[in-house]
Amino acid sequence: MVLASMVLLGLSGTVAATLYIQVRARLVLAQAGSAYVAKTLCSGVLMAGMDDAQLWAAELSRARGLVNARFIPDRGEMVTDALWGLVSARATRQSNLGCSLYHQDVPPVSLPEQARPVSSDQPSPSMPWRLDPASPDAPPGAPDGQELQEVLDEAFREPDPQNPRRTRAVVVVHNGWVVAERYAPGVSPATPLIGWSVTKALTHALVGIAVKEELLQLDKPVQVPEWTLPEDPRRAITLDQLLRMSSGLAFTEVYGDFETDVVKMLLHSEDAAAYAAGKPLEAEPGTLWHYSSGDSNLISRGLRLALSDDAAYWRFPYEHLFQPLGMGSAVFETDPSGTFVGSSLAYATARDWARFGLLYLHDGVWGDRRLLPHGWVKQAITPTPGSEGNYGAHWWLNQGGRFPDLPRDTFYARGFSGQLMMIVPSRNVVIVRLGQTPGKGFNPNTFARRVLKAL
């Protein structure tokens, strides 16, 4: 319609097409920018307590001048608009469970206040300090203090303005003891930071707990209401195939293009799983490895439907995972429909992400309590066919040598903008690095190699 109007106004087809492309690109950017700004400010400021000026300067710098934002205190909402008000988005505070993004006048499903664990972290512990309750009473042998100091200095240094690192937090745990820890200005040990796709590892843990309780079965499909026809081949997709990203569903996992599936699902969809369920098969289930956040959100809603009790579902991560681990900062956010965004939207302090990493280092046991079923960590780190040894089940692997300077038994969760939670079993080490790295400013192979060398 826009293109036809331009032609009627007397513009040539070529000029009209060029203007249409430019207008459309501007509109798509404004839509994505408004949604991203609203969600980032709501979660970062209202939930995590970060400074909005700091978020604008780093994480939202591309939207400065394009998107306007305002806070509505009585509703606990962050509202944004762009293109003279033609495009807008809202994110609303969900009691003490983070924020949910929405675009329509109808607000998202309202979540009840949730009992959450209380952190027992020391305010400013001396180094080293014990994080793992099952660790030896004595700390590990002293690391190379100078080398470790230089590693941290380098992680927070900004040598190239064109490729900023913007490291926010680093925590290194060796033999259950925190031997290195540092934070950027404006970030503290108590600041919850987004994991982005590190969240997928949490989803894997929750699925394991659900399997242990016989709510879900690995070799069976999860409930997907959109696939109603008996002849629909997507009905055969199993939980294990979704965890291994071998569902066969067509899904574009690209962030630079604002019209890809992952951006539409996270920033524009009222129901992330419903969006993923609408994708056709590009391959027979189980025959093609293809990284997809859509698979994670189908799993998350599958757990919700298996519980068939929303109140129990919203309590599930807190009662079964965060509380036992002492992850007092952890928040798992939902989409507007009320389903946890299992691909991307969990927040926790760097220390609490490290606690979660220790759970997987110790085969699903925390202290003297088994939280994950026997064999669940093995399932996570068993390579998925077609991934060339780089992917297991909602965890990345180094069996294929993607990080050439690290032990091959290393496995890790990584997320957008440089989030990293790395487990190195042969060295009894967990490394957490969180930041807002827009490009190639942070090299995880070099960083982790130097950390291990210093221990």
Question: Can you tell me about this structure?
Answer:
Helices cover 33% and strands 16% of the residues. With 455 residues, the chain is α+β, with helices and mostly antiparallel strands. A 7-stranded antiparallel β-sheet has the order 5-7-6-16-15-14-13, with helices on both faces. The chain has a 4-stranded antiparallel β-sheet with strand order 1-2-3-4, with helices on one face. A hairpin with a 3-residue loop joins strand 14 and strand 15 (419-424). It is globular, with a radius of gyration of 22 Å. Residues 1-8 have low confidence and may be disordered.
List the helices and strands and how they pair.
Elements: H1 2-8, H2 13-47, H3 52-57, E1 67-72, E2 77-82, E3 87-93, E4 99-102, E5 129-130, H4 145-156, E6 167-174, E7 177-183, E8 193-194, H5 199-212, H6 239-243, H7 261-267, H8 272-277, H9 293-307, H10 310-325, E9 331-332, E10 346-348, H11 350-361, E11 365-366, E12 369-370, H12 376-381, E13 396-397, E14 411-415, E15 419-424, E16 429-435, H13 444-454
Antiparallel strand pairs: 1-2, 2-3, 3-4, 5-7, 6-7, 6-16, 8-10, 9-10, 11-12, 13-14, 14-15, 15-16
List the helices and strands in order: HHHEEEEEHEEEHHHHHHEEHEEHEEEEH
Q: Which regions contain 5 or more consecutive residues with pLDDT less than 50?
A: 1-8
Across the major sheet, the strand order is: 5-7-6-16-15-14-13
Helix/strand-derived category reads alpha+beta
Please estimate the helix content: 25-40%
- End-to-end Cα distance, whole Å, is 63 Å
Strand content: 15-25%
Number of strands: 16
Q: State the assembly state of the protein chains.
A: single chain
Average pLDDT, rounded to a whole number, is 92
**Roughly how many Å is the radius of gyration?**
22 Å
Tally of alpha and pi helices: 13
Largest sheet: 7 strands, antiparallel
